[in-house]
Amino acid sequence: MSKHGRILVAMSGGVDSSVAALMLHEQGYEVIGVTMKTWDYADASGGKRITGCCDLDSINDARNMAVSRGFHHMIIDIREEFGDAIIGNFTSEYMAGRTPNPCVLCNTFIKWEALLKRADMMDCELIATGHYAQARQHENGRWVVSKGLDETKDQSYVLWGLEQKNLQRTRFPIGGFRKSAIRQMARDSGFPELAQKSESYEICFIPDNDYRGFLKRKEPEATAKLAHGKLVSVGGEDLGEHDGYPFFTIGQRRGLGIATGEPMYVTDIRPESNTVVLGRKDDLQKTTMWVRRPNFQKLPLLEGELEAVVKIRYKDRGTPGTLRMEGDRVHVEFHAPVSGIAPGQSAVFYDGDDVLGGGFIDRPNPAP
Predict the structure, then answer these.
(1) Domain residue spans of the chain
(2) Were both Cys, which of 29, 66, 97, 268 would link to 33 (CB 3.0–4.6 Å)?
């Protein structure tokens, strides 16, 4: 009989999730490691060896580590649900003129549900992952994600979508450690190769990091029809043509296809007219933002106005702002101009180190 009961641990084969499983095993949990197969990696690699989250080599690494420590490991196939939800959303968001973050969607809306489903099947009360974040129960009784100790690796930003019923069953064993300490734990546990593993930042289903090529393969007819769209200035001046608005993102500077004699940036994408708007760096500065599909953790709902620090991208340091609900969206009034607000990306609201909640950045005037 285990000391703390049975826990299901998501193992990608990387050092973080592997050490998380080792820590829980040493603490006396009955660990069941699980690696999720999300994509046909052989098809995506074009014959080349790819390295990243849950590729075939990483699956084997996770299994070998589990076997060496004597706990169970299993592989679950979620390619169908992953493809329908994540890849479908990825293409539809770009076709809607937004810039998606598939890892946020996958983490909180696909992988957690898949993990908890299997946890229930195997009588596991808890699940755990190798995220650099922390979870705690606030004095008001609600569960909240907090920043990881290592600010350079903090992943609380990608976990804003976790709902209470899922968050209360989740543990983040490595959240109170720095990355250097995690690598040392791997070495001390007899896994020096694991400690030296590099990190992957590519989208798992786009190993060559060419999202434009991926869109053309997934939506050949739709993307072809969007060629010869308009490039215009912020003031409405005709600057030339582009090969399709889905191939642009807010803040993009390179690959615009024109020479203007000064740096220009994508400041707006208008899918209804297949138009991409270019402006100077100052034109990227905004003081307001709309956020759709909000999820709140530290409070059950947003009433009145609330002050928070708002991050609009993973590496963003955050900007203070005022939040208020207007209909089913959150309106954010920043206390200082913010550059490069990209519809489709996540906006996350912080109260100190705690995640108040978050949502998806919306276009200023979305179609009804």
Answers:
(1) 6-130+173-195, 227-279, 284-362
(2) 66
Q: What number does CATH give the domain 227-279? A: 2.30.30.280
Specify the pTM: 0.91
| Among 53, 54, 106, 124, the one annotated catalytic | 106
Catalytic residue flag (residue 106): yes
Q: Which of 53, 54, 124, 204 is catalytic?
A: 204
Q: Where are the beta strands (DSSP E) in the chain?
A: 6-10, 30-37, 72-77, 126-128, 133-137, 143-147, 170-171, 229-233, 238-242, 265-270, 275-279, 285-296, 305-311, 319-326, 329-339, 346-351, 354-362
pLDDT tens for 233-244 read 999 999 999 999
CATH number of 284-362: 2.40.30.10
Superfamily (CATH) of domain 6-130+173-195: HUPs (3.40.50.620)
Q: For residue range 62-73, what is the model confidence (pLDDT) as tens digits?
A: 898 999 999 999
